[in-house]
Design a protein that fits this description.
It comes from Microbacterium schleiferi. This protein is of the alpha+beta class and 57 residues long. Helix content is 18%, strand content 21%. The protein contains 1 helix and 3 strands; from the N terminus they run E-H-E-E.
């Protein structure tokens, strides 16, 4: 059973946080295999605080 929690900013403590999901899309081109390796190296999700602007993963 998965438990959902609210992400809060580590700097200011607000819960007004957005998510930037780097790998949210699938590449449907001939070079997908090449690009997929680069995407997997990056962090999949980055959080951004709308109050103070800090980001974290």
């Amino acid at each position: 059973m998965a438990i959902a929690t609210t992400e809060t900013c580590p700097l200011c403590g607000t819960d007004d946080v957005s998510v930037d999901d780097v790998a949210w899309f699938a590449i449907a081109f001939e070079r997908r295999a090449e690009v997929q390796d680069e995407i997997e190296v990056q962090d999949a999700v980055v959080f951004l605080c709308r109050e103070c602007g800090v980001n974290w993963d």
